[in-house]
């Protein structure tokens, strides 16, 4: 229980004299329910890998002429970025390098994370406001 500060006569001090009000209790971020992967149809996530940079908008200007370094992942909205990174690492050798960083439009992960290099790996697509049909370069 908080203690009210009082003046030397017993009357409480005004709020401004007591200092700033305490910060409001932090509300936890909304957590989405896990998806029943047996009953829910997956979405197709098209990932284009590139070493040393990002693809440009122009590389996607003509449908059917996208870059050839595509990895197609069938996944669900509760998939974490770590799960997606591990799937990309299975088929893209360059993503397995110790210093590799995977950047998706909603976050980034390290090939081998540690306490000194935090990443977004534990966050699910739904936690990161990912929307089906989104195009990110």
Automatic annotation (TrEMBL):
Region entry Disordered, spans: 1-37
Pfam families associated with the record: SAP18 (PF06487)
Entries under InterPro entries matching the protein: SAP18 (IPR010516), SAP18_sf (IPR042534)
Residues that span the membrane, as ranges: none
Family stated for the protein in its record: Belongs to the SAP18 family.
Protein name: Histone deacetylase complex subunit SAP18
Organism name: Abeliophyllum distichum
Lineage per the UniProt record: Eukaryota, Viridiplantae, Streptophyta, Embryophyta, Tracheophyta
């Amino acid at each position: 229980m908080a203690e009210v500060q009082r003046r030397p006569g017993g009357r409480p001090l005004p709020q401004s004299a007591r200092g700033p009000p305490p910060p409001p209790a932090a509300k936890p971020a909304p957590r989405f329910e896990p998806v029943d992967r047996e009953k829910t149809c997956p979405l197709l996530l098209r990932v284009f890998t590139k070493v040393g940079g990002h693809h440009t908008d122009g590389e996607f200007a003509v449908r059917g002429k996208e870059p050839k370094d595509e990895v197609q992942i069938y996944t669900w909205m509760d998939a974490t970025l770590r799960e997606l990174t591990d799937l990309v690492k299975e088929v893209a050798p360059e993503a397995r390098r110790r210093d590799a960083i995977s950047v998706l439009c909603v976050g980034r992960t390290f090939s081998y994370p540690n306490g000194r290099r935090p990443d977004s790996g534990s966050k699910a697509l739904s936690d990161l406001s990912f929307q089906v049909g989104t195009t990110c370069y």
